[in-house]
Amino acid sequence: MQKSQGFKGFLKYVRRNPALGGGLVILLLLLLFSTVAGLFVPKEGAYPLSTTPKQPPSAEHPFGTDSVGRDLLPTLIYGTQMTLSIGLIAGCIGLGVGTVLGFMTGYFGGLFDTIIKFLVDVLMTIPSFLLLVTIASSVPNPEEMSILQMALILSLVAWVQPTRAIRAQVMSMRERAFVMMAKLSGMSGMEIIVKELMPNLLPYLAISLAGAVNGGVLGSLGLQTLGIGNLREPSLGMTIYWLRYYNAFLQGYWWWIIEPVIMIAAIFIAFLLISIGLDEFANPRTRRTV
Amino acid sequence: MRIPLSYVLKRIGFLVAVLFTAATINFLIPKLAPRDPVTELINRKIASGGLTSEGAAEFGDSLRKLYGLDKPLWQQYLTYIWNMMRFDLGYSIVNYPQRVSDIIGQTVFWTLGFVATSTILAFLIGTVVGALVGWSKTSKWFSWLMPPLAMFSAIPAFILALVLIYFLAFKLKAFPLRGGFSATIEKDWSSTEFLLDVVHHAILPGLSMLLVSVGGWALGMRAMMVTVEGADYITFAEAKGLKGSRIFFSYALRNTLLPQVTALAMQLGLIVSGATLVETMFSYPGIGNRLGAAIAALDYPVIYGIVFFMVVGIAVATLFVDLLYPFLDPRISYSGG
After folding, report:
1. d(CA B229, CA B261)
2. For labelling alongside B303, which of A59, A226, B204, B257 has CA 20 to 30 A away?
C-alpha cells in the first residue's frame, strides 16, 4: 500500500483500481445530479398537482410525470438528494458510534467488551430491517418525519456492523509488534489508539462507512416502500411507494417505474464498486473480487 | 462428531437471550412512543361512524382492560413476556377478534414456499457457478458470469422485482402481475390446476429473490475455491493421478461447503427482510405482505407479532444450522469450547 501524494497520487492509484474509480465516478455523478441539477429545476415540481399528470417523457418533461401530477425530473433530483442524505447521516452516525465502541472494546477488553459483544451478537441475529419496522412504525406522526429523524432511526441499527468489524480488526492489530513498541515507549492506551491504530485502520473505517451508508439507504428505501416515513416529500422510496399505490404497472407508465429503479440501482452499484475497490486497497495481496 | 451437551446448552441460552431481547424491544418501543393505539382506534371508529362519542369512553376503558393497559408497567411487562413464551401474540386491532397467531398461520406457508425454494436454488446455483469460476481448470468463459451476478447482488430484490413485473408480467404477459393464485380458480389444494396456478404466481417473486442472491454465493464460493486450490491435499490428489472431476467434487467442493452453509445462516435475516418487501411488491398472500398491510392500517399487535415471529424463526433456524456443522464437516468439534 503506497502512500498517496495528494490528488495526483490518488488519480494514479485509481487507474490501477478501476472498481474504486468507477464507483466514485458513479457516486459523484449521482451527487452532481442531486445537487447541481437542483439549481436549475425548482422543487415545486416534485409535489402533486404541480403539472399535467400521466405525461410520458417529452421536451417539456424530460422524465415524464406521474399520475397525480408530480414532474418526475425534480422528484428524482430531490428524491436522490433526500435518500442519499438520509444514508450519509445514518452511515456517519453508525460509523462514529461503531468506531468508538469498536476501539474501546477491541483494545481494552474487559466487562464492557463482554457486554457490547453480547449485544452485538444478539442484534446481528435479529434482522435490522425488522427492528427498523418496529421502531419507525411506532414514531408519532410518521408522515411528518424529517430527514434527520429518519436518519436517527436508521442509525439505531447502523452502528452494529461497524462495531463488529472494527472490533475484530483492532483485536488482530493489538498484538502486532508496532503496538508493543508503542506500549513499551510509554504511550497511553488512548494515544496508541489515535496515533498508531487509527491510521492503520483507515481503509477498514472507509469500508465500514461505505457499508453503513449503503445500509442506511437500503433501510430508508425499505421503510418508505412499506409506507413508513414522510411520503409527501420527494425521496426514492416514496416514489416506489406511490407508483405501487397508483398501480403504475396496470397503466403501463414505464417511465415512472424504470427511472427510480435506475437511480436506485446506480446508488447500490456505486457502493458495491467502492467497497470492492476499498477492499483491494486494504488487502492488495488478495485476488480481485470481480 | 458428537456435539457436547454444554455447547448445545450454551447455544440455547443465546437463543433465549435473543428472543428475550426481541420481546423486550417489542414491549418497550410502543411504551416509549408517545402514541396511544386505543385512542387512535377509537378516533378511527368515530370517524367511520361505527361509534358515538358517548360510547367511546366506555369502549376505550374496556379495550384498555382487555389489553391490560390499566395495570402497572412491570405487571404489563411480565404478562407480555409470559404471553410471548406461550406464543400468545394477542389479537388484531383492525380485524378484531382475529388472533395474530392465526394470521401468521394463514400466511406463513405462502412465504416459506417461494422463499425456501428460491433460497435453496440460489444457494446451489451460486455455489456451483462460484466453484467453476474459482477452479482454474475450467473454461475462462465462466468468469464472464461474475460481473453481472455481482451487479444483481448489489440491487435489493424488491427493486429488481419492479423490473421483472414490468417486463415479464406487464409487457410479455408471461406471468401474473400480482397475488398468489388466480381469483377465477377454485382454491383447492388437491387439484393440479390450482397447484400449477400457485407455482405460476410464485415464479416471479422467487426469481427476484434468486437473482439477487446467486451472486453472493458465487462470490463467496469462488474466493474459497481459490484458497483451497493451493492446499497440499489437492496437489497430493493430483500427484496420485485422480480424475479431475473427482478432485473437484470430493476434494475441493466438499471442503469449501462449510463456510457457505455458515454464510447461509448469517443471511437468513436479510432473506426474510428482502422477502417481506418482495411480497409487498407482488401483493403476495404471504406473511411479509401481511406485515405491510398491518403497517398501513397501524395494526400494532399484528406488526409486533409478525416481527417477533420472524425473529423466532430466524433464531431457531440459525441454531439448527449451528448444530448441523459437525455433520457437514467432521473436522469441527465443539469439545474444546
Report:
1. 19
2. B204
Q: Is the Cβ–Cβ distance between A151 and A93 less than 8 Å?
A: yes
**Burial grade of B177 (CB within 10 A; 0-12, 13-18, 19 or more):** middle
Orientation of helix B146-154 relative to helix B192-229, angle to 10°:
120
Report the half-sphere exposure of A18 (CA within 13 A, side-chain side). Answer: 3
ipTM of the complex: 0.88
**From CA B296, how far away is CA B307, in angstroms rounded?**
15
Report the C-alpha gap between B247 and B244 in whole angstroms: 5
The helix (H) or strand (E) run that includes residue A138 is helix A128-138
Q: Which residue of B has its CA nearest to A217?
A: B156
CA distance B106 to chain A (A): 20
Between chains, do B154 and A130 touch, taking CB under 8 Å as contact?
Answer: no
Contact status, residue B292 vs residue A244, Cβ threshold 8 Å: no
Closest CA of chain B from A249, distance in Å: 6
Closest CA to B318 of A131, A114, A121: A121
Q: A71 — phi, psi (to 5°)?
A: -80, 125
Span A43-94, pLDDT tens digits: 998 999 988 899 999 988 999 999 899 999 999 999 999 999 999 999 999 9
- Grid cell at residue B114: 417461494
* Mean pLDDT calculated for residue range B28-35: 76
